[in-house]
Amino acid sequence: AVRYESDGGVTGGQVGLLSWSASSGGGSGSGSLEHRVVICMSCKVGIRPGDGVQLHFWRIHRLKGEVMRQILDYSYTAEPIANPQAVPVPADGSPFVQQLPIVDGLSCSDCRFLTTSRKLIRVHRSQSGHDSTWKEVRLQSLSRGSRARYSVVEQVQGSIGPDGTTSLRSTASGSPQRLLADCLARYEESLAAELEETRRIEIAGQDQTSSQPGFARWAGRDT
Asked: Which Pfam families is this protein grouped with (predicted)?
């Protein structure tokens, strides 16, 4: 399970620390038994170690002076800390982390392809030749947008096919107003992530096609 450690008032609640077993993330730590990531409590995202901490709080929150010094001192004390964009994510099925957003997502039935977009799950299914069904899941990520790397934290009942007619049925409780607010809050972020994922999938498909025998010869011919 992922463990949360508050700053103990050192930074005024600006940052916190998430840690989980290195073995649970599908990889081994570099001389460490666990992965540790510093998170911004306002943005609810992981922060890159080193100059990434200072850059985040200066560019995004315009912090400086004593407050910045306290944040930097805390990050140094928490070392070794990992890059949230590269560290192995927690194992699927782990309890959700209260300090990170939870989003509705889709998981390929034949592999670990995870996305928040119905369009991208269809693109993946078409290009990979995988089964026509996928599962509805609940996802969390240490990063946002194009850098999001998801892990499944809560299974949603049922599965859906390529027609996408089945509605999302989260096992999490909440009023319709709360669910609507959550959807609206995620909308802009999902758009950016979808555009980036589409670009990556298209590039991967082009690379696969270009490696096929005879592609270079036929690509240069007039049609």
From this structure: OrsD
22 — pLDDT class (breaks 50, 70, 90) = confident
Supply φ then ψ for residue 135, to 5 degrees.
Answer: -105, 145
DSSP-derived secondary structure letter, 26: T
Q: Give CA–CA dist 193/118, Å, rounded.
A: 12
Cα of first residue to Cα of last residue in the chain, in angstroms, is 57
Inform me whether the pLDDT recorded for 76 exceeds 90: yes
Q: How far apart are CA 63 and CA 72, in angstroms?
A: 11
- pLDDT band of residue 29 (cuts 50, 70, 90) is very low
- The Cα 220–Cα 117 span in angstroms is 35
DSSP β-ladder status, 150-160 and 3-6: unpaired
Structure-block tokens of residue 7: 């700053």
According to DSSP, the residues that pair with 139 across neighbouring strands are 103, 152
Q: Is the pLDDT of residue 57 over 90?
A: yes
Residue with tokens 């985040």: 56
CA 57 to chain centre: 21
Pairing mode, strands 34-40 and 45-46: antiparallel
